[in-house]
Amino acid sequence: MLGVGVRERLPDGTEILAVWSHLRRSGVAKLVTVHFFDRE
After folding, report:
1. In angstroms, rounded to a whole number, what is the distance separating the alpha carbons of residues 33 and 35?
2. Degrees (nearest 5) of the Cα angle 6, 7, 9?
3. Beta partners for residue 22, in sequence order
């Protein structure tokens, strides 16, 4: 299993961190969690 965190911006401008996992045996990538940063 390989994991990666990707900082992205949604169409409305909201910044998120998406954490993905790649399952080698099946060759599938799965979204593990999404973190929304604090808004002030």
Report:
1. 7
2. 125
3. 2, 29
Structural domains counted in the chain: 1
Are the beta carbons of 3 and 18 closer than 8 angstroms?
A: no
> Could you report the per-residue pLDDT of 15-39, keeping only the tens digit for each?
999 999 999 899 999 999 999 997 6
pTM for this entry: 0.72
The DSSP symbol for 10 reads -
Which residue in this structure is represented by tokens 């990666």?
A: 4
| Residue 2 clears pLDDT 90, i.e. is over it | no
Q: Are 21 and 30 in contact (CB under 8 A)?
A: yes
Q: Determine which helix (DSSP H) or strand (DSSP E) holds 1, and give its type and residue range.
A: none
